[in-house]
Design a protein that fits this description.
Length: 167
């Protein structure tokens, strides 16, 4: 399985890897060495915390490198009238009886609490390619389906203002 990512996604991931390798890694290694000097490692809380932080950093580096290795690079293009990647979409959720503003993004930049919805999520998949006025069925599971109406679309573009998610 691969993730569909843009050139900006790849650039942001490479920047984070560079930061973690060049700046954060030496700092965390030093913290482990300092904490190790405090004495008995079996009861040394500072050592355990420093070691965990170092391991989390290494894990994140491996995760980002794997994402870059397995990514399928996509171009942001779309129909002027239809929902596409990075567009802001106002929908009316008929089940919740309220309007919601969403932005369709790549999986790496999703953050549902900020209204950034992955194009691979049930809502993202349902909206992609549809136009203003369309009623679209969102299928969360075979048992849970609901309808939304697309009220407006504001065309967007791939920019570096959207952070990549932590995990």
């Amino acid at each position: 399985m691969y993730d569909e990512l843009t050139e900006v996604d790849l650039k942001k991931m490479q920047e984070e890897i560079n930061y973690r390798v060049r700046e954060l890694r030496p700092q965390l290694i030093e913290e482990v060495q300092v904490a190790r000097a405090f004495g008995d490692l079996s009861e040394n809380y500072e050592y355990k915390c420093a070691k965990q932080a170092k391991n989390r950093n290494e894990s994140r580096i491996r995760y980002l490198e794997r994402m870059i290795r397995t990514a399928k690079v996509i171009e942001v293009k779309g129909d002027n009238d239809a929902v596409g990647l990075f567009d802001k979409v106002v929908i009316f959720n008929e089940m919740a009886k309220r309007e919601m503003e969403l932005r369709i993004v790549t999986t790496l930049r999703q953050d549902a609490l900020k209204g950034l919805i992955s194009k691979e999520s049930p809502v993202g998949q349902a909206l992609m390619g549809h136009r203003v006025g369309d009623r679209v069925q969102v299928t969360v599971s075979p048992e849970l389906k609901y309808m939304v109406e697309i009220r407006s679309i504001e065309k967007g573009q791939d920019d570096e203002s959207l952070d990549i998610s932590a995990y």
